[in-house]
């Protein structure tokens, strides 16, 4: 044994703590305020419980959100198809109107010729 040390006796700590106290013949004993420990454990338990609940929510409800997104995408696609159908029907009706109007113009001689004439003919009076 080194000189100056007695068996079983520990030298005082150079940094004494207000949370510890020395009991005769034993090592330092940690003094606990049970009210503070109860509050601390409650806070830690609450944080763990909230974390657990958030994890469960994210894992279980994400498929629901994905299902909703898929449903929204299908609805958007349906709306886009309907819009495209309306556009096609509109184009068909417009072409039919143009054909009908061209027939009426031909009937009354209002169709412009490719030669660049104005579409009017000179009326000659033989009198």
Brief description of this entry?
This protein has 127 residues and is mainly α. The protein has one helix and two strands.
Q: Which key features would you list for this structure?
A:
127 residues, two-stranded antiparallel ribbon
Strand order of the largest sheet: 1-2
The tally of strands reads 2
Please report the number of helical segments: 1
The low-confidence parts are: none
The largest pleated sheet is described as: 2 strands, antiparallel
Based on CA atoms alone, the radius of gyration comes out at 48 Å
H and E order: EEH
Tell the overall outline: rod-shaped
Roughly how much helix do the residues carry, as a percent range?
55-70%
If you had to describe this structure to a student in words, what would you say it looks like?
Helices cover 58% and strands 5% of the residues. It is mainly alpha-helical and 127 residues long. The model has no long low-confidence stretch (mean pLDDT 78).
């Amino acid at each position: 044994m080194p000189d100056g040390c007695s068996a079983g006796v520990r030298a005082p700590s150079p940094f004494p703590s207000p949370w510890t106290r020395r009991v005769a013949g034993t090592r330092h004993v940690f003094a606990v305020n049970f009210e503070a420990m109860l509050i601390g454990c409650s806070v830690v338990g609450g944080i763990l419980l909230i974390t657990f609940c958030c994890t469960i929510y994210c894992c279980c409800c994400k498929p629901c959100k994905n299902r909703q997104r898929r449903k929204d995408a299908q609805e958007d696609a349906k709306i886009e198809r309907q819009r495209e159908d309306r556009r096609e029907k509109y184009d068909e009706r417009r072409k039919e109107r143009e054909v009908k109007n061209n027939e009426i113009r031909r009937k009354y001689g209002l169709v412009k010729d490719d030669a660049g004439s104005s579409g009017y003919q000179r009326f000659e009076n033989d009198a």
